[in-house]
Each structure stands twice: as structure tokens, then as C-alpha cells.
Design goal:
Elements lengths: L2 H21 L9 E8 L6 H20 L4 E8 L2 E8 L2 H6 L12 H12 L7 E3 L2 E3 L2 E6 L20 H14 L4 E5 L6 H9 L5 E2 L6 H4 L1 H14 L7 H8 L7 H12 L6 H8 L13 E4 L14 E6 L5 E6 L4 E9 L2 E4 L1 E3 L17 E4 L16 E7 L3 E5 L5 E8 L2 E2 L1 E3 L5 H22 L6
Parallel strand pairs: 1-2, 1-6, 6-7, 7-8
Antiparallel strand pairs: 2-3, 4-5, 9-10, 9-14, 10-11, 11-12, 12-13, 15-16, 15-20, 16-17, 17-18, 18-19
Helix pairs in contact: 1-4, 4-5, 5-6, 8-9, 8-10, 9-10
């Protein structure tokens, strides 16, 4: 089977599985979401399987003890790659689903990671607010670290960091790991620490932990709670290890591992900071891709079901991974899509369109709205000129908006904050407004083409 076709098939399957997870929302707890990818390839038979089961069972036992209503989903990855259990906090049912698994076939971990996308970024899971920390759905991979190609039917003895298999898996982890932490738990007689360690480093907040210490993973919920309370209480103070120890007395007696885990969370708080997430999501990185504020609709390579609500959306930023852009649809759902060259292929999940953003009468402003200078403007010629029409690409707290102007400038403005309006909404049904807007877009396009041709008109 061709690699590109196989990858597209798994991406399509991820969308289908996201919908299945959403249908089962009534079984979801309110706690943190973690999807476990269990390597069930033939090299895991014997000691690898025993260690994997013991680590997984201890994690579930700790979840039961803590009673935090954390959600667990399980994907097996071997001769078959499929969900064994969708998100749920019924730990007995989850434990039973792995009791009779057998290790057969190859180890297409890339397929398992792509399938986990359904839980992480396609709506299957959710983000938990432990203010000021925002805890997104997470992934845990338990494996001996010898992945094989998703098109292969046999397992290799050992995977090299120079192999295409590893490079493709690493690229997938990097793409999802931009916002999703991946934890790797090595098991087996001779786990490939070199491979698993490199993959753990590829995601923001990634971890490599021993299978004997797996129970500590389940304690993240408690330790995020402790870290969040400390950050709220000591906003302008350096949080020392002693403060962490004292804080634990309010919850329970923390072990040294708990203390260390809270300190790690505090040291890496940017990985769980919604502001940092926003800065990453909304960044405009590549001049060859549609700029922030561009209106789009599903394109020729669309494989994502009804994510767009069969309507248009707005480009809100460029992913760190070349070939991907971030889109917020008019139904307020936000996902990443391929646009241009990504890996070995060129794909266009979305295409540029000219459908303006229309909002209900009870909504004041939204992503995709057109705006111009308002009565309280005090920002000089930041917008370009008096007649400039910009596009909203982010709405913060409904009284602060982020706008991109035709000259390429981007900034945040008051929209109701202290009754001040730096910008006001334009009516997209006004023909004069739209004529001005499309004229600006044409001028901007011509300017970009001239710059890309070394200053010569195209």
C-alpha cells in the first residue's frame, strides 16, 4: 500500500473516531483526558506485555483512588490499530478491555498517533481549566520503541533514528505535540530508549518515565491542581520547593515524586498557559500561505466530515509545521488543516473564498468580522489609512479583539473595554464597504506578488 494513501486513510479514520467519541460525551468525566496508545506488536510479547499491563493497571488504580473523574481512552497498535475504549471514567470497564489482548504483527505507531488525533485535537477530548493552567487532552505511548512503517506487515528488529519510519513518526509527534504533551513509557527486555527519548522531546511538555513509576502519571490531576493554586496565590512571588511542600498539606501528604512533579509543572507553566497557546495558534509564519484573516471553505482534499458546519471560516494563524494553517469556522470550532506541501505530498483541505462573516443580531463581534477605525481610536496610522478595513482573527473576552489590517499590521484593540471602542464592525451587506474591502485585498495581493518577484510587477 502506498504510504501517502495509508496516511490519508488513517487521517480519515481519525475524523470518524472523533465523531464516535463525541457521541459518548455522556460517559465522559470532567477531569483531564488521556489517550493511551498501547503497542501490541509481536516484539512486545512476554515481558513487554507484562510490564505494559502492570503499568496501565497501576495508573487506573491510582485514578480510582484519587477519584478525579479523569477520562481514559485506549488505542491498540499492532496487527490491528483500533480503539479498545473511547473516553470514559469507568476504570473497571477500561481495565477489562486490555485483559485479553495478544501481541501480534508489526508496530505502526504512526497510525496509532494519527488515530489519537481524534482524541486530542478533533473534538473527542476536552481542555480542563485549572486556572491559570489550561490542561489539554494528553497522550501516553507504552511501547518498546521499535516502530515500523504504516504500510508494512512485518516487524523490524530495531528502528534507526536515521530511518524514514522514525522521521515520519517524529514529524507527526512534532505536529501534534505543538499543543499536546506526549508521555512515553518504555517497556520490554530491551526498549529503544534512543527512539522513545527523542519522541518525548519532540512535544511540548513531553515526558519519558519508567514503567515502574507509571502510577505517578495518574497523579497529574492532583499536581496540576496544586500548581494552579500556587500560581493564583503567589502571582508576584518566586514559588520555592518549601512553598510546594506547604501547599500539599491542604490536599494530602505529597511524596517526593509529587513535589518534583509540581515543581516541573511550575517550571514549564508556559506549556499550559492559554496565552502562550494563543500566541502560537495565531502567529503568521509563512508569506506563501493565506494570511491571518483570510476567509476559507473546505477544499479539494477535505476529509474532516462536518467540522466546518458546511460553512466558511477564517484563517487565524499558521502552524509551526510547514503546510498547515489554523482555521476557526463560523460555528466557532477551531482546527488545523493542510495547505500546500506537507511531508511528501501537497494537499489543500481548505480553499480561499469571499464569503463575508455574517453574525446574529444578538452577537456584537466574532472572528472573521470586518472592522474599521472607531470613535476611540488612538493608534495613529497603525491601520494604514482612514478608510482601511481590517479583519478580526481573535476575540478575547468579548471586549478585546485582534485585527489584521491590509498593510499587514496586527494588534489588539478595545471593543467595549471600559466603554471604549478603538474599532467598530462594518456591515458586510453594504456594497460600498465590500467594494473597498475587495479593492484592498487586490492591492495587497499585487504588492505581495511584486515582492516575491524581486520587486518586478508580475
Amino acid at each position: 500500500m502506498d504510504y501517502l494513501f495509508a496516511k490519508l486513510s488513517w487521517e480519515k479514520k481519525a475524523v470518524e473516531e472523533a465523531n464516535e467519541n463525541v457521541k459518548r460525551k455522556h460517559k465522559h468525566g470532567t477531569g483531564i483526558c488521556s489517550v493511551f496508545i498501547l503497542d501490541t506488536s509481536e516484539s512486545m510479547a512476554g515481558e513487554g506485555l507484562r510490564q505494559m499491563k502492570q503499568a496501565f493497571h497501576e495508573i487506573l488504580e491510582e485514578y480510582t483512588f484519587l477519584d478525579k473523574s479523569d477520562n481514559v481512552a485506549v488505542i491498540r497498535c499492532g496487527e490491528e490499530v483500533k480503539f479498545l475504549h473511547y473516553f470514559s471514567c469507568n476504570y473497571l470497564s477500561i481495565k477489562n478491555c486490555v485483559e485479553n489482548i495478544q501481541c501480534k504483527g508489526h508496530s505502526p505507531l504512526e497510525a496509532g498517533v494519527i488515530l489519537s488525533h481524534s482524541c486530542l485535537n478533533l473534538g473527542g477530548g476536552h481542555t480542563v481549566n485549572m486556572s491559570p493552567l489550561q490542561i489539554r487532552a494528553r497522550a501516553v505511548v507504552i511501547s518498546d520503541g521499535n516502530p515500523t512503517e504504516i504500510t508494512s506487515s512485518t516487524e523490524s528488529a530495531e528502528t534507526s533514528p536515521e530511518s524514514e519510519t522514525f522521521k515520519r513518526l517524529l514529524s507527526e509527534i512534532q505536529r501534534q505535540g505543538e499543543l499536546t504533551p506526549f508521555t512515553f513509557i518504555p517497556v520490554g527486555k530491551r526498549p529503544n530508549y534512543r527512539i522513545l527519548g527523542a519522541l518525548a522531546l519532540a512535544s511540548k511538555g513531553g515526558r519519558l518515565i519508567g514503567w515502574q513509576d507509571a502510577r505517578q502519571y495518574a497523579r497529574l490531576s492532583l499536581n496540576f491542581q496544586v500548581a494552579g493554586s500556587l500560581l493564583r496565590r503567589y502571582q508576584d512571588t518566586t514559588i520555592t520547593e518549601d512553598l510546594v511542600r506547604n501547599a500539599y498539606q491542604r490536599y494530602s501528604r505529597g511524596s517526593e515524586e509529587d513535589i518534583n512533579q509540581v515543581c516541573e509543572i511550575l517550571n514549564e507553566k508556559e506549556a499550559y498557559d492559554i496565552v502562550t497557546e494563543a500566541e502560537s495558534v495565531f502567529k503568521e509564519r509563512y508569506p506563501t500561505m493565506p494570511c491571518v484573516g483570510t476567509r476559507v471553505q473546505r477544499g479539494q482534499d477535505w476529509i474532516y466530515g462536518n467540522q466546518d458546519g458546511h460553512g466558511p471560516g477564517t484563517v487565524i494563524g499558521h502552524s509551526q509545521n510547514a503546510g498547515w494553517i489554523n482555521v476557526e469556522w463560523d460555528n466557532e470550532k477551531r482546527y488545523s488543516y493542510r495547505y500546500g506541501r506537507e511531508g511528501i505530498g501537497e494537499f489543500y483541505d481548505v480553499q480561499i473564498c469571499n464569503e463575508p462573516r455574517l453574525i446574529p443580531e444578538n452577537v456584537n463581534i466574532a472572528v472573521g468580522c470586518l472592522v474599521r477605525k472607531g470613535p476611540d481610536w488612538k493608534w495613529g496610522d497603525q491601520n494604514g489609512d482612514e478608510e482601511s478595513i481590517g479583519t478580526v482573527y481573535h476575540v478575547k473576552n468579548r471586549n478585546e479583539v485582534y485585527v489584521r489590517w491590509p498593510n499587514g499590521n496586527k494588534s489588539n484593540y478595545r471593543f467595549g473595554y471600559n466603554d471604549k471602542y478603538d474599532v467598530i464592525v462594518c456591515d458586510p451587506r453594504d456594497s460600498d464597504i465590500m467594494e473597498r474591502y475587495f479593492f484592498q485585498k487586490k492591492m495587497e495581493k499585487d504588492k505581495n506578488q511584486t515582492e516575491n518577484n524581486g520587486g518586478l510587477p508580475k
